[in-house]
Amino acid sequence: MTMGVHVVTIEPSGRSFTVEEGETILGAARRAGIWLPFECGWGSCGMCKATLVEGNVKCMLPEAPALSERDQRRRRIILCQSVPESDVVLKGCTLLEEPPENLATADYRAVIAEVEELAPEVARFRLQLDRPADYRPGQYAILNLGDGLRRAYSMANLPGTREVDFIARRYPNGSGSQKLFSLSPGTELTLELPYGTAYLRETSRPLVFIAGGTGIAPILAMTREWASNGGRTGKSLTIFYGARTPEDLVCLEELQQLTGSFPQAQVIPVVNEGGAGWSGEVGFVTDALLGRLAEPWDEYEFYMAGPPVMVQSVLKLLEEEGRGVSITQVHYDSFG
Amino acid sequence: MSEVKEKIRWFPVLTLDDLWEGEMLDVEVEGEEVLLIHLPGGQIVAYQGMCPHQEISLADGELKDGTLTCTAHRWQFEAATGNGVNPKNCRLYRYEVKVEGEQVYVGFLDGEGRRYNRCTAK
């Protein structure tokens, strides 16, 4: 046996597979044709939790939102971020007969085709894939940026072509975004997609899309889908698009163009700092929702993408007693 | 309603020092996943261990201020009753529980079919 290759066995079925050096258990299972429950692939949803019966794993994201102190005591681990350090025996996770709905994740080879600056420190990365990408608008990919560095980015364009667009911000202390921004056209990498379940459902309810910062990428993809279907999904579409400053609203024009010919669509930009010449909403997205979204809120179907702090505060607002928004009408992904 | 209070088969699952007040724990009873909650005040309740939404273990969730939240999709239930908080139109199957001394038992009602409620997201 090669150094670094470990065997994972799932009890009580006894199904086992090998995991290469640095591979996550979830990824290795999939490559071995074994589907385990998952959704976000990133440690937010907790769907891939399992009990570690024997062996050791390294968690690539110890601060994962889905992990609690209780999980540590109970030896519950998230398979999407766990890399074996020895042979491992697991229990308490279901073996699926097929991929979860709309989550037939696959590996793609990619090359960076184009990098377009949208604002200072914000860029659109266009990648050329080895074959057409299969996903639902609103879903995301996990990019392998090299040296074991992985990051999740949502597709901003429609599926079915060999091109995928990602929108990213460079953070001064963000090793992932720093690495991504250091890659120039021609660089090859691999990625996995799709992940996430915040994709558009068939509905007759009025739709509300909420985007914060680069969370505009999946919202843009869903708006493209909505527009390409002739705006027939949902009774109406209201898009709240929040960012720090007006210049950070990098896709505002694109959004307005996409929805411009639909009288039932409305785009509401929101910034934290307006300044001279800004006549739109100022404050947090939650302020704009309270000020501009007509009651009753339990009529709407909500989709949102953005920084975890925005997602959490919108969720809190929607779940407040009296508003009565059912959590089944709220779709979001929340990864940092 | 049948006139006989159905017979209950009791299974010992844990002792009180396994489950402190305010905590929850999952156990397996005859192949079924059962969630036990020790409510503030001392009462112990038992519910289906899997979320009615999808096959997610509720014991992976969060128990706070009398509300049980499933981590995966934030479905919430009242810890004391198993009734849905959000969404409302959903509730957890509730098992019979008895405590004798330190020993906690979970009971299956004879003749009962599925001890697992399922709800769809619509």
Automatic annotation (TrEMBL), chain A:
It comes from Thermoflavimicrobium dichotomicum. This is Toluene monooxygenase electron transfer component. It holds the Pfam family Fer2. The lineage of its organism: Bacteria, Bacillati, Bacillota, Bacilli, Bacillales. Keywords: Monooxygenase, Oxidoreductase. It comes from the Bacteria. Residues 6-101 form the 2Fe-2S ferredoxin-type domain. InterPro entries: 2Fe-2S_ferredoxin-like_sf (IPR036010), 2Fe-2S_ferredoxin-type (IPR001041), 2Fe2S_fd_BS (IPR006058), Beta-grasp_dom_sf (IPR012675), Cbr1-like_FAD-bd_dom (IPR008333), FAD-bd_FR_type (IPR017927), Flavoprot_Pyr_Nucl_cyt_Rdtase (IPR001709), FNR_nucleotide-bd (IPR039261). PROSITE patterns: 2FE2S_FER_1, 2FE2S_FER_2, FAD_FR.
UniProtKB/TrEMBL annotation, chain B:
The keyword Coiled coil does not apply. Pfam families: Rieske. Keywords: 2Fe-2S, Iron, Iron-sulfur, Metal-binding, Monooxygenase, Oxidoreductase. InterPro entries: Rieske_2Fe-2S (IPR017941), Rieske_2Fe-2S_sf (IPR036922). It comes from the Bacteria. GO terms for molecular function: 2 iron, 2 sulfur cluster binding; metal ion binding; monooxygenase activity; oxidoreductase activity, acting on paired donors, with incorporation or reduction of molecular oxygen. Its cofactor is [2Fe-2S] cluster. Residues 11-106 form the Rieske domain. Belongs to the bacterial ring-hydroxylating dioxygenase ferredoxin component family. This is Toluene monooxygenase system ferredoxin subunit.
